[in-house]
Known about the structure:
- The protein is of the alpha/beta class and 212 residues long.
- The chain has a domain at 9-130 and 194-211: 4-Layer Sandwich (Purple Acid Phosphatase, chain A, domain 2), CATH 3.60.21.10.
- It has helices spanning 19-28, 52-66, 76-85, 98-106, 113-120, 149-154, 157-160; strands at residues 9-12, 38-41, 70-72, 125-127, 131-134, 169-172, 181-183, 186-188, 200-203, 208-211.
- The strands form 2 sheets. The chain has a 5-stranded mixed sheet with strand order 3-2-1-9-10.
- The longest helix is centred in the N-terminal third of the chain and has 15 residues, at 52-66.
Amino acid sequence: MTGKVEPRIFAVGDIHGCRTKLEQLLTKIDWRPENNEELVFLGDYIDRGPDSYGVVETVLELKSRYRQRVVFLKGNHEQMFINFIMGRDDLPLQANGVSFTMRSYYQNSPFPVSHLDFYQNLSLFYQTESHIFVHAGLRPSVPLDLQTEEDFLWIRDEFLESEFDFGKTVVFGHTPFKQPFICPGRAGLDTGAVFGGPLTCLEVAEGRLIYV
């Protein structure tokens, strides 16, 4: 008897306004939503790069065509941008590249309602039987349902330096590496696309890495 084969899942690291790399990656990954294969974005679609508006347009097109097969997670940069446009900014926004995002929107004004809806309805995590997908990581020893939004979006050293077993492999972005951070129970996919590194995708079950 042949065991059940689960549909493939592809996870994409931090894009940061790099629309060209995103579009090139989407043509390269052989994702087949018609076969129930899923595509998970780990957040940080915007800031620092040249075309944040275009990146959101691209992912919204995916959402409109394949709503049930695409998962959009929130990154800390989306939260900062929401705070900015709602007048609640309390972080060094210019240092975090928000000026690039605003320039992108000024060139495509007025601000689309669909984009605001996208930012406000991003998920904090997604999980399967074997994996947890999140932007930044998880706080060790804390159950998933007790993790805070700050942990999901901002945690770094406490997660990276811990050997805590979450019971599933955690696939995350947020912290840039020169090459994907792959170790037991962890898969970090932010490879600094906006800093000249590649945009990275992981085919989860096979552990296959795809770069642009």
